Amino acid sequence: MPHLQHNGKKIYYEVHGEGQPLVILNGIMMSTLSWAMFLPELTKHNQVVLLDFFDQGQSDKMASDYKHDIQIEVVQAVIDELDLEKVHLFGISYGGVVALQFALKYGNSVDKLVLFNTAAWTSPWLSDIGVGWKKAALLGDADLFYSVSIPVIYSPNFYTKHITWMNERKTFLKQVFNQTFLTAVARLIESSEGFDIRDQLANIKANTLIVSSDSDFVTPADNQLEIHHAIEESAYLEIKNCGHASMYERPTEFLSVLKGFLASEKVPKIG
């Protein structure tokens, strides 16, 4: 799979399928591998472009602190590399934060904007959650980092009902949570400190869909409603009985909402 060079560092990306380009931006602990289960459906009508931000997956790691602006340029570098004129842009959580700022800076490149479980600022609530995650990450303790970060991104009902799956995932993630990964996650968390674009949201002109979950304890629904109220050309939808990791908790609904919006102007209804 291809890499490109940007400011002396490698960006990893993948291209799947054909059609109108859909660029997907990862949540903070995700990578291109996180989307494998969704590719068969998403590539039926779209060319799907996956990428790893700096400090994620197979892209290069950073040596010092940074802000979101470098990740915005990662997205633009991939779009330029592929010579894409207009794209649908999807982001979840951290990826949604970058997508919002990309739409502000490079709005002419964005056709439709889709935001799941994201926020326009790092609130005191989100900041303190980040502090806990960062401290656990810097200790290099995979068990501790899992316990601090993973349960809160799922709804209590899902976590309890699917405890066998969660335990299997814990075994897998403990192998992923090595020192390199945890140090990189700490930098990603720090990149969101002080983030606030609430006063700029009205400048986003893309046709936008904003999706929240009623049991999201990381970026509660009020965060997404704030974005919806500020962006004139936006629609809002809330997924019931679901936490922050909406794509894993409700994969069928996730695909239905995303594909439905990309295919039409209307927001599909879900149960």
Can you describe what's shown?
With 271 residues, the chain is an alpha/beta fold. Helix content is 41%, strand content 18%. The chain contains 11 helices and 8 strands. It has helices spanning 39-42, 69-81, 94-105, 124-139, 142-149, 156-161, 163-176, 179-190, 221-230, 246-249, 251-263; strands at residues 3-6, 9-16, 20-25, 46-51, 87-92, 110-116, 207-213, 234-239. Strands 1-2-4-3-5-6-7-8 form an 8-stranded mixed β-sheet, sandwiched between helices. α2 crosses α3 (94-105) and α4 (124-139) packs antiparallel against α5. The radius of gyration is 17 Å and the shape is globular.
List keywords for this structure.
alpha/beta
Task: Write the topology of this structure.
Blueprint: E1 3-6, E2 9-16, E3 20-25, H1 39-42, E4 46-51, H2 69-81, E5 87-92, H3 94-105, E6 110-116, H4 124-139, H5 142-149, H6 156-161, H7 163-176, H8 179-190, E7 207-213, H9 221-230, E8 234-239, H10 246-249, H11 251-263
Parallel strand pairs: 3-4, 3-5, 5-6, 6-7, 7-8
Antiparallel strand pairs: 1-2, 2-4
Helix pairs in contact: 2-3, 4-5, 4-8
Strand content: 15-25%
Radius of gyration: 17 Å
What is the overall shape? globular
The helix-strand sequence is EEEHEHEHEHHHHHEHEHH
Overall residue-averaged pLDDT value: 95
Oligomer: single chain
DSSP E strands, number: 8
Q: Please tally the helical runs, counting DSSP H or I stretches of 4 or more residues.
A: 11
Biggest pleated-sheet summary:
8 strands, mixed
Helix percent reads 40-55%
Low-confidence stretches: none
Given helix and strand content, the structural type is: alpha/beta
Query: How are the strands of the biggest sheet laid out side by side?
Result: 1-2-4-3-5-6-7-8
Distance separating the two termini: 38 Å
